[in-house]
Amino acid sequence: MSTSTVNIPPQFEIVDRPLDTQMTISMGPQHPSTHGVLRLELVLDGEMVVKATPDIGYLHTGMEKLFEYKKYQQGIVITDRMDYLNPLGNNLAYVMAVEKLLALEIPERAQTIRVLTCELQRIASHLVWLGTHALDIGAMTVFFYCFREREKILNLIEAASGGRLTPSYFRIGGLMMDLPAGFERRVKQFLDGFLKSVDEFHTLLTGNRIFQKRTQGVGVISAEDAIDWGLSGPCLRGSGVDLDIRRASPYTGYEKYDFEIPTESDGDVWARYIVRMREMNESHKIVTQALSRLKPGPVKADAPKVVLPDREAMKQHMDALIHHFLIVAEGFDVPAGEVYMPIEASKGELGVYVKSDGGPKPSRVHFRGPSFVNLSALPQMAEGAMIADIVAIIGSLDIVLGEIDR
Amino acid sequence: MTNGADNDRDLPRQTSTTSTKSSTPSPLVTALQRAHPDWIAEVREAYGEITVMVQREHIQVVCSQLKNSPEARFDFLADLCGVDRGPEEEPRFEVNYHLFSTTIHHRVRLKVLLSEDDLHVPTVTNVWRTANWHERETFDLFGIIFDGHPDLRRILLPDDWQGHALRKDFPLRGYEPYSLK
Asked: What residues in B contact A354, CB-CB < 8 Å?
């Protein structure tokens, strides 16, 4: 190190390390296996990682600040851009937080459709994880199969909402609109073929000796450490902690569905892989049940001051037209207070903290992104691993930088 | 503390559709308040959530007490976030701790109030290691200093960033040279 006047942050300073054995390298932010713009500061002893320090913020766009300048209903589109692999989950957490403040009652059909589409989205999110995780480790074929299946889900979401990656399908008080005609048939068609695809993934990966060697016993974290580091979702369940918010504090009607919570006790990359693979089957189960629970009915709450009226009603009724104008032009007032709404997103606990001062815009919106917290445990898992294992560990954490940096 | 008056307003009741399975920890915190009246200023309940106003200097002991007591078992720090109530408010800043128990499945929110001229609060990284990044984020965006934090650096914004972006008096599009004006 030269002795220039540049102030070197203490974590980069080399202390007590013989120069001939250790070196510091920067991995990312353009590295393809960091799943976005994550940079890692790795201190290596040969090929062994002595210390890994994540450096984030490259994708920070000040979304939480933006919320304070937007009306409540305008915030929904911002949430799409956080965890862009699971946008419906973000929509759900945000609208449910605002609905909690407004004490809105959501109709049964809207809740069922929320569960149905969110579980489809969870499968789609897990498929991207599986494809890229396998690709990082060197198994390329899986990627194409995963994206083939994901394409079908994106088509379904597009049919329902009009958007593929940024659906913004949920509204405060219900849904944007009802499902299109023939949607149920298309979902059934997808479900019929999906379990076979999961078997294909298993054929490609689970029995593969190279994949097993690359993942078993790598990136181990114990249950106590996982809880202490705040891990959630499949990462926590991979360490043997039986915790799923859909079961622990059910929301939007999850208590009525019959599904299992897969757990594995080893806490390594392999355990997290198995948990997610089994979760796709469980989501398949939930979607099947949601389809059979779909009954005709309204998809918007009976709250004319919050929920936009139907187009037809606006042409017939003066008050509907006035409400429409007021909601669009001025927004609606939300009672003062604060709520924290946690849901089980595809990556773990997604918590939304909303604080209202009583106006049409929130005073503070904070997102507890599961990727943010899961990534903070990376130094613990990476210590002592090989440099090639870092790629496997990052893949198993299933991070999305849009959510970490917000 | 001047926060006693404004919590009596009519708050809408939580919708009854959500499950009532997990017990609320309110008897726990009221017992804690009774045992140590100097730790906890007030306990509020709204929207089915419990907010405990904790005196700043006792936040560490309240946290470890709630984490380790066999009835509470708040072993999981779900979230930690700052709030700016606006430059004219006193106290201006809040730090919220959202606690969760992985075994009993109940939640509680701890709240510490801070005035602008003394933005120091003890760290809770020695209670839960996950607080590390949350506290760094709160420091980065609000300028709240967590005393005893092992690595209190900016996390989302660049090291040379001036100001704290989530404060109410920070403009949405920032200052020069970063602003796009």
From this structure: none
Contacts of A342 in chain B (CB under 8 A): 78, 100, 107
Q: Which residues of A22-40 are buried (b: 16+ CB within 10 A; e: fewer)?
A: bebeebbbebebbbbbbbb
Residue A107 touches partner B, C-beta closer than 8 Å: no
Structural domain boundaries enclosing A354: 63-405
Query: From CA A343, how far away is CA A261, in angstroms rounded?
Result: 15
Cα–Cα distance for residue pair A350/A373, rounded to 1 Å: 10
B76 touches chain A (CB under 8 A): yes
A31 and A69, same structural domain?
Answer: no
- Which residue is closest to B24 within chain A, CA to CA? A249
Q: Are A32 and A133 in the same domain?
A: no
pLDDT tens digits in sequence order for chain A, 406 residues long: 445 566 777 766 666 655 567 788 888 788 777 777 888 888 888 888 888 999 998 888 889 999 999 999 999 999 999 888 999 999 999 999 999 999 888 999 999 999 999 999 999 999 999 999 998 888 888 999 999 999 999 999 999 998 889 999 999 988 988 899 999 999 999 999 899 999 989 988 888 888 888 888 888 999 999 999 999 999 999 998 989 999 888 998 898 999 999 999 888 999 999 999 999 999 999 999 999 999 898 888 888 888 888 888 888 999 999 999 999 998 889 999 999 999 999 999 999 999 999 889 999 999 999 999 999 999 988 888 888 889 899 989 888 988 898 8
User: What range does the domain containing B81 cover?
Assistant: 26-147
Q: A376 vs chain B: nearest CA distance in angstroms? A: 7
Cβ distance of B81 and A368 shorter than 8 Å: yes
Structural domains counted in chain B? 1
Does B102 reach chain A within 8 Å, measured CB to CB? yes
Nearest to A242 by CA among A259, A223, A256, A225: A223
Is B43 inside any structural domain?
Answer: yes
Question: Which of A339, A363, A377 minimises the CB distance to B49?
Answer: A339
- Give the tokens for residue A243: 């915790």
Interacting residues of B2 by C-beta distance below 8 A, sequence separation 6+:
none
**CATH number where B45 lies:** 3.30.460.80
CB A311 within 8 Å of CB A292: no
Nearest partner of B138 among B159, B126, B158, B156, judged by Cα: B156
**Domains contained in chain A, number:** 2
- Among A103, A377, A405, the residue with its CB nearest the CB of B13 is A103
What value of ipTM does the predicted structure carry? 0.85
- Residue A4 within a domain: no
